[in-house]
């Protein structure tokens, strides 16, 4: 039995904290932008500084998750990243004044207990890279792209397109996690030029980038068709379950030996995912207080420009949180 190293566990916690904090900061930034005239430009940009800080935290969360995936199984990292919505819920209460109801407090406790179960029950180790995984990742890119195309042909009024786009986003974000788990980092022997050449020609890295782009587009399109709660719930479920299954079946992800640990991890996984889905309404803090006020025009004769973009995960995880 191997105890999970401290650094990967710390990295996965930092990833969840970064993503959850980024969502709130982006919401704060968007609200500030919505209240600030666009002229002078400097004042408008200054008002949105927290939005930029949120984007930086997204990048930090992604890098932290990559560090965690070098050692921890996908079912741990994916669950922890999905649990970032719990961080968003707590910070929304503290920073934005959005009250947590009793059910949401219970979900926070469920997520915390589930994460502890996953952390103690997972068997750490590097991910395997069987030849079939590259083909699987390339095929996954095509599937996600096809789902987006199909969803765009479905009438906007129904829920089918919304669910398909949300599932496509989940598959895309999950594909980023799988790719990060199996990506082989070059050694220092070939020098910087050799390392860069190795990475940019690796189909797994190309698949990682493609998954991230498609997932971001799909998530943005899904949010245009329905509520953040529905979109986040479907995305959380798909991006957690699918890559976790891939890791257990093909990539050598494992649970500590013994039937007891299997039960602990199974319950921990179910609790974390269930809690995250239960808190999905907190994935978009701006929703809780209604739309932001229109931007005041700088000049009465100047038409009001479109409202600043909503702070949602479509602008987060670039290319994603893994």
TrEMBL record:
The keyword Transmembrane applies. Residues 283-311 have a biased composition (Low complexity). Residues 283-322 are annotated as: Disordered. Signal peptide: none annotated. The chain crosses the membrane at residues 6-29, 50-69, 75-94, 106-122, 134-154, 161-184, 204-223, 230-252, 258-280. It comes from the Bacteria. Keywords: Membrane, Transmembrane, Transmembrane helix. PANTHER family: CONSERVED INTEGRAL MEMBRANE ALANINE VALINE AND LEUCINE RICH PROTEIN-RELATED. This is Drug/metabolite transporter (DMT)-like permease. It comes from Terracoccus luteus.
